[in-house]
Design a protein that fits this description.
182 residues; mainly alpha
């Protein structure tokens, strides 16, 4: 590990902080891309399970009881692990009728102003789902049909939401940088 000079100037401190932030943002983007790919692969797995279950139901008149629960768990994983990636590529729904007519600078202003509400909601939701995951772990909560432990799937919710918050902060930082440049 490189030693930092004992008497760093304010400019050097700002440069070091900026480098740390940029490296963290790079890591957050990488993780979001990896989890987005994983969510896409889980979509394929979910489709195969549904097809296999339908095939078994109509051909053998014997559906798989676990298919419904597995698909529900996969849907949660796809939603929460893919949410940060979707935000990263600007794939979330926007009302583009008005927004698209704004200049890039005006869009950045709107994004920064609305981010207060979005960030407040995400932090509140993240707090709630961390509590739900910890409760599932402490109580040994299981699914109703197959009695599988629910902690692992419930843990994906706060992990995905926390990553969504981090990607949101990275994107917010980019918008603020646009506004500072003018």
């Amino acid at each position: 590990m490189a030693k930092l000079p004992e008497m760093a100037t304010k400019g050097e401190d700002n440069y070091l902080l900026l480098r740390v932030i940029l490296e963290a943002a790079k890591g957050i983007r990488w993780l979001s891309n990896c989890l987005g790919l994983a969510a896409g692969l889980l979509c394929l797995l979910m489709g195969l399970i549904v097809a296999f279950d339908v095939f078994a139901r109509y051909l053998f008149r014997n559906p798989f009881p676990w298919a419904w629960e597995v698909n529900n768990c996969l849907l949660l994983a796809i939603t929460f692990l893919g949410g940060a990636f979707t935000l990263l590529i600007d794939g979330h729904v926007k009302v583009d009728v008005i927004y698209s007519r704004f200049s890039f600078h005006s869009q950045a202003i709107v994004d920064v102003c609305t981010s207060v509400f979005v960030l407040s909601y995400l932090l509140w939701f993240d707090f709630l789902v961390w509590g739900a995951a910890l409760k599932a772990f402490r109580t040994g909560e299981t699914s109703n049909l197959m009695f599988w432990p629910l902690f692992p799937i419930k843990l994906l919710l706060p992990i995905g939401t926390s990553l969504l918050i981090l990607v949101f902060l990275v994107k917010l930082g980019e918008k603020i940088a646009v506004l500072r440049k003018g």
